[in-house]
Each structure stands twice: as structure tokens, then as C-alpha cells.
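job 3f2a | input accepted
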Amino acid sequence: MKRLPSKPEIAQWLSEHEGRPAFHDISRAFGIKGAAKIDLKRMLAELEAEGLYEGRKKRRPRGEGLPPVGIIRVTGPDAQGDLLAEPADGEGDAPRILVIERKDQPALGAGDRVLAKLTQTEDGWHAHPIRKLQNGPRTVLGIYRAGSDFGRILPIDKGADLEFRVSTADARGAKDGELVEAEQTSPPRLGLPKARIVRRLGDPGAPRAVSLIAIHQHGIPDHFPDAVLAEADAAPADPGGKREDLRGLPLLTIDPSDARDHDDAVCAELAADGGFTVWVAIADVAAYVRPGSELDREARKRGNSSYFPDRVVPMLPDRLSGDLCSLHEGVDRPVLAVRMEVSAQGEKTGHRFVRGVMNSRASLTYEQAQAAFEGRLDAQTDPLAEGLSHLYAAWQATLKARAARQPLDLDLPERRIVLDEAGTVTSVAFKDRLDAHKVIEEFMVMANVAAAEELIARRSPLLFRVHEEPTIEKIEALREVAQGAGLVLAKGQVLQTRHLNKLLADAEGSEFDELINMATLRSMTQAYYAPENFGHFGLALRNYAHFTSPIRRYSDLIVHRALISAHKWGKDGLSDWDTEHLAETATQISETERRSMAAERDTTDRYLAAFMADRIGAVFRGRISGVARFGLFVKLDETGADGLVPIRSLGDEYFHHDADSQTLRGEKTGTVLGLGQRVEVKLAEAEAMTGGLLLELLEVEGAPMARARRGKGRGKGPVSRKGAAAKAGRIRRRRER
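job 3f2a | predicted structure (737 res):
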């Protein structure tokens, strides 16, 4: 008898063999005989429970029931928002299965395989998830291409290299050129891997399809279940409860010109001691979204709103986000508000939270507020001039405290993609950074600090916004970049934001300004939510919690509930379940935040590639923003888009990659290519479906790119253009992650 294989060895063997090998096939392959087969059966049972093995099963007769516990595959929400699934074996007359999700489980999406308890009710089959299984079938989003014998799926995912083969029976009637979601059914061997289509998503070239692709690709729920909508529609305009009357305060909102919801209002008044009294009032979302309600369950699952150039996928239905919880001008609205005393030096010296009712004096745009701050008043801002003047003066005072605190001072302009009514990109520009933006941001940060301090003082559970300091490895990488630019990030000291700000200040105005800002950003850890307080490194704050946007962030709703419970303002505060599952909630909403960021970034990349697709052959200026063994990344000045210059396109010579100095050095010509160098490139390829840009290097620092001639060197040969832009997108995405 041969040695009994381990579970990983069996799993590896299974992944290399198509279909569903029977028990005797596996035992024969490993030479297992006699009593050892009992142990093999046990391991196969464990692998099956983990979703890594499916033995041969009898075809389920039409109409036969399901087992009490089984593996299901989530197919996604239906038109009403109900999460549906089907048996994972996909055989027989598969019944419709309604998934009954638990609040404490990770969010489920199309393609997920779940071990579930299955029960039959009058409404049909229900699945109660036990646990989500890992390493299930791969889900792919792509374009279906019909064929005479079989079809193919061309993935749009930047991480996908292979096409997939689809039989006629597994095509589900998909038409040539349709966007489809499919599930891989076999591993790649000699030919293409097989897949079956599980959902047809329509025309990929339709207006505004770019964000729809990202929404489906990242599993962002974009339809509210009927029960959630019904609960929102039934919400009263006045939720009642005892409230402090704040309608006499000159509170107003300042938002982008296209904002539909207004969840924060501000005002400032002069204080007798030369300081200021600043009020920040936030929509009382907790009064409408009660713990354990359908609205609450859906909001927690979504975690946050997702923003795209052409649409918003909100955390809450429009009845709340755009109406009852929006602080519209001239309308009474329930709020949680904080009154903050700010000294003449800009320090917050005290605060008091209230649950009240307010009436907004005005809904201003950032541009209107900026003009008013500069003395250019219009009909709407003229009556508010004194209050706006006090607000601006209060912000100017905070600049003194900010200078002493030294939060990280990155200067990274934000791209703004402008679409026409059909969803076509008309321009790509950089958003203006106005003082009006900074005024609102500063007082939102101050209110968030006050919320964290208040709940800590009252010994209340809450979710902190945590941003830990960079790792030693990332700081060393930043130090290498700085040295390459002739700058210094000193060693031998406890890293503080002021050290990074010194580096940023030294680079300001130089040719390495943008490079150092980007490198500093990449050295940062990702912020997250946690019930424990580890501080916020980037803001240089010890206590920080999100309080100011409960319409679009579930974390803020938890903080609101904590404040309600701590002050005994009502029965709609933190529930026992909320408190017991804070850690799970923190993990859940941190994951949904990352999911939204990835979807938003992918959408921007695709829009940029689509915008530039008509400019193939055009020449652009840019700067080398990344160096890898496979090529160079260049950030274009005009749009801020990133493209890849493959190493094979640099000439017929071998390029040595030095990871420490972040350079490529040509073996024959001695050409050195490194971070921060100004370059001129030609756009060789733009793949809108993947967001990939392929570039050809023409000039470096004003001089033509030196290229070795073909000879006996270690040249890599010509670059293949087929699919190169798609691969460029995939490589860039790996680098960003």
C-alpha cells in the first residue's frame, strides 16, 4: 500500500482532473487499498464539506426534494432583491432556493458556494447558510462569442488571461456580443477551460454600461428588496421623540453642485473670548433605520454607498437618502448635533451633543460658498454673509492648530470624468480644490473627534476609524524613492507625520513633486474600522470615529446609535446584537468599503481607456511612476491615467531591474530608466473593456530613447500587441493591490 496522501495532495490531484472522479478512481490513482480506504473516504468527505470535491451523484429525478443540508451556489438577487441560489451540482430540475441571510455572516454574492440547511416551506425552498465555502468555482464576467459548435467567453476582468469554452447547452440562450456572467466548470488542460453561463447582462456597449460592469463584477447590491423599499416608504416625516429646538441657528449645507442628499449642516458664531462656537448637525438616520429592521439589515450588507461617474449605488433607499434624511433648505429635519467651542488658536476646548430638530437656511454649492468667502455674494448668499464670514474665520483659526498637529499633507489632485447624457466621456479634468472644501472637511473631522471622545468618556462601545502607521518595509521603500529623487527621509526616529510632511515640502515645486506624493500615499496602510482604538496616523489624531455621514456609511450609523444609548435619548440606540457583533460589523463594512473602492477605480480606468481609444498613435507627456522587471508605468500629465511600457518594447537588449533603486538599466546602451523621469510616450493600445493602456517610450528627459540594435545580446524580441493592453491593465491592478 502506498502512503496515504494528504488533503492538499488530493485537492491538487482533483484540480488536475476534469469531471467528478469516483471514489475508486481516486483510490486507484493513489494505490489505496484495504482499511486505508476508510481514511480516504473521511478526507474526501471533509474536502466535499469544504467545497473542494464533488463525488459522482445520481441525477436528481424531476420533482425530487433536496437534502436537509447541502451545497448551494448563489445566483444573485432577483428583480425584487431577494437573494436566490440553486443546488451546486446543477443537475436535474433545479428548484428556486431563497437564501435567508444572517446578519452576522459575510455578504454573499453571485457565484458564492455555501453550505446551507435546506427546508421546504409553502413559498418554496429556503436555504439557511451555515458557512461560505472557499475555493469554489471561478466566476468570470465577459463577452460571449457564439460559434457553430460552441461559444467562447472573452473575460473583461483585468486578472484574466484565458478565454472560456461554453457548450450550447450551457449558453442559456446568450447572444453573440452579450455581456455574461459565467462559472468555470473545468480546469484548463490541453484546451480552453469550460464554463457555463449563469446570468446574461445585456449589451456591454450600452450607455453607462461601464459602471454596471464594475457593480456586477464586484458583487455590489444595486437593487433594494421589496421589504426594504416598503419599510422606507412607510417611514413618517416626523419620527417623533424629545428633541432640542435648533431652528433658530443659522445652519446651512455646503455640497457639490450635483448633490442630491445633504446630510451635514454647519454654522459658526463669534464667542466672547475671541474664539468661536461651531455647530455641526447631522441627519438623524438612526431615527429611521432601527436595529434589526429590513432597512438596517440591507444597510449593513451594503456597508456604504458606492459612487461612479454616472450613478450612485446608495446604502439607503432614496425615500430616506434623498428625502427624509436630507437636510433640505427650509424644511424641519431631525438631527444629531454637536456644539463645539473653538479657541482663537483653533483648538477644540469643549463640546456638547444634542438630539434636535433644525431648519436649513440654505443649500449652497462649494462654488457659491467660495465666492462668498471671497466677498462675491449672490442673491442667496447675501443674507448669509455674516454667518459665512464667521465660518471662514473659524476655519482660519483651526489652521493654527492644524499646523501644530501636522496631519499628513498630501497633494493629490482628484480626476473628474465628465459624461454626456448618453454616458460617453466628453472630458477628463482635475477637480478644483477650494477653501470651501477645506472648511467643511476640517469641521467634519473636528465633529468626528468629538464623537469618539464623547463615547470614550461615557465608556460606550463604538467603531473607531483606524489608520495605523506604515510598516518598516514600506517606509524603507519610500526612503529609497526619496533618495533617488535627491531627497532625504531621515532614519533613526519614531516616524511621525511631520517627518513625511517635511519630505513633501522639500519636493514641492520640484520635478519630483507628484512622484513623492504618490510614493508617500503608497507607503500608507489602509484605514479600516475596529471596535478597538489604535489611533489615526494620517490625521495625527489619537481618537477618531466616523459620525458625519450616516446616509452613506454604516459605521456612522453605529456611532449615532452609540450616542443615543449613551445619552438615553430613546430606544433606537445600540441593540444588544449591535454590541455583541461590533467586531464582525467592523470587518464587514471594512470589506465593503474596499469593494466599493475597487469598483470605483476599475470604472475610472475603463472610462479613461474608452476616452483615449480614439487617440491611438497620439503622443503624450508624462512621468515614470513605477518600475518593475516587466516594464515601466507612466502617469500621463493630461488625464492622470496610468499606462504600461512593456520591457520588450524598449529595444533589443536585456534590461537589469534594480528593485532597491527602482531602475531598469540597459545591458548594451547603459540606458537608465527610473522613477520620476520625464518622458514622452505614444499611445499604442487602449482596451476599454479592461481599462488597460499600452504605451511606447519615445523620449526620456528630452532625449530620444536609445535603443540597441538586434544582435547577439539578450534581446527579448518584439512585443506582441494582441491583448497587450488588457495585460497592461491586469499588471497595473496587481501593482496597486
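job 3f2a | Residues 57-63, 712-722 have pLDDT under 50 and may be disordered.
job 3f2a | closed
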